[in-house]
User: What shape does this take?
Amino acid sequence: MLRIYQRLWQVNWAEQWQYRANLLMYLLYWLVSPIVYLAVWTTVANSQGSVKGFTANDFATYYMILLIVDQLNSEITIHLLAYKIQDGTLSGELLKPIHPILTNTLVNNLAFKALTLMAMLPVWEILFLLFRPDFSSVTPQSVLLAVPAIVLGFGINFLFGAAITCVAFWTTRVYALSEFYYALLILFAGQFVPLDLMPPAIQTIAQYLPFQLLRYFPIQLILGKLPPEVIALDFALGVFWLAVAVVIFRFVWRRGVKRFSAVGA
Amino acid sequence: MIDAIVIENLSKTYQVPEREGGFKAAVRGFFRRRYKDVHAVQRVNFRIESGEIVGFLGPNGAGKTTTLKMLSGLLHPTGGRARVLDFTPWDRKREFLQAITLVMGQRNRLSWDIPAADSFLLNQAIYRLPDAAYKATLKELDELLELGPIMRKPVRNLSLGERMKCELAAGLLHRPRVLFLDEPTIGLDITAQARIRTFLQEYNRRTGATILLTSHYMADVTALCERIIMIHEGKLKYDGGINELTHRIAPFKLICVTLQDGADCDLSPYGTLAPGENGCKTLLQVPAGEVAAVTARILADLPVHDLTIEDPPIEHVIERAFNE
Assistant: This one.
């Protein structure tokens, strides 16, 4: 099994390099919103001294970490798979004795991530020089603790993304659903603003939804801002949401493949 | 001999959305969709023994591809049952997928941007082939298909024929015991077609694999298959030997007569005049039982320069069988 992933990596990694222009577009799209938020909020904080206790440096560190976390646990499954379901080319993968999503699509996501991360680093460095954020609260322990949090976040996001993509088995309007998911994510994940600045009601809801586990939780973990009991709760929530995502994905996938094969791949 | 493929009353009905053109119809269709049942395959039965090569024929839309997709596990039937190597295909068990292949002429199993050799390596991992076995098979495929330099070029840069060779190789690396081939020679030139035919024969001989193939090229079918299965509008039309079909559908021979220069005689009394082909002056269609007598009479009566006796072309036989 390890060999399958190894070979898939080689193939996908080689393929990624073929799409340089495509990659650049994705990267721009990806970087624009966090950088805009970063610029806007630091300017606001600078002019007022702070926003609800958030200083300009708080914003800078938050969004700088967000840029990395965002890259690490985002997923692009819908762009890799929806068209294959719609035009029937998925059949080629269904003939092979492996699960197409848990192998090929997963590795494709990872290869894309590795490449965009490489391309993003220089941008990150430029931002670092421009904003000069103070990362003194970040410790090796806090970074180490964030690793499982990010992996968990990616797992949840990947499976939800895959489940949403599988809706393409029933409808061609699957992109709208994906947009809706992303809108929820922006609102409840702490992508738009750190959750602390949201109204208390939204903060309470967001705490239990899976989205904050993708952004806010790992960011705050890295910045060393969470008390131990919140860290424990969030990890438990992460495991819970991962289990939910697995169940939903398996259900949608099985039904979807059956439907795919009913309508004539 | 055991049966590699058994299907009983296999049926597939598609529900296809139906709607007239125009805006009004589009709006109506948005609220209430109407569906039409399309019976792609209707209660088809056949058995194929292990090691057989069988031609699967039918006009466009006859249900050939649908049947192949059901047999390879991509489609759920709406009725009947099928066993392939004792598996129910649409359960898509790992052991089943490991033992079969479906090669479709226009579909690519290969990654477009990388050389086929890389896709082969990936297949080695996916099908869990030990290094030694993989190398041996690849060498064999290389010999038979002359893959050499073409498998090191990105697939997008290959010609149609080269790509088809690579597709076939990719589909056979795991040494499947049952091959479903949908138009394996489509778009290829005569030489490449012949090469693939020879290859399939050789593969069948070496491995004892069962092959079910569709093709629009009768040369493929006559070269490879002793038995053909014909379907038309989803129903089984014929299952048996090619020769038997010829005897049943077209129990006549063609006598090709070329008269000596200048001679101009009416041949119609000897048989039915058929459109001449192959450069011969006159083509006569004569009942199979009377060929000897008619030939003798022609030779005795007329100034014959050349005379040959042929079977009717298989295309005609098949066409007549479908129109029957």
User: Anything to note?
Assistant: DSSP finds eleven helices and no strands in chain A. Chain A touches chain B at residues 3-4, 6-8, 10-11, 14-15, 18, 89, 91-92, 94-98, 103, 258, 261-265 (CB under 8 Å). Chain A has one domain: 2-263.
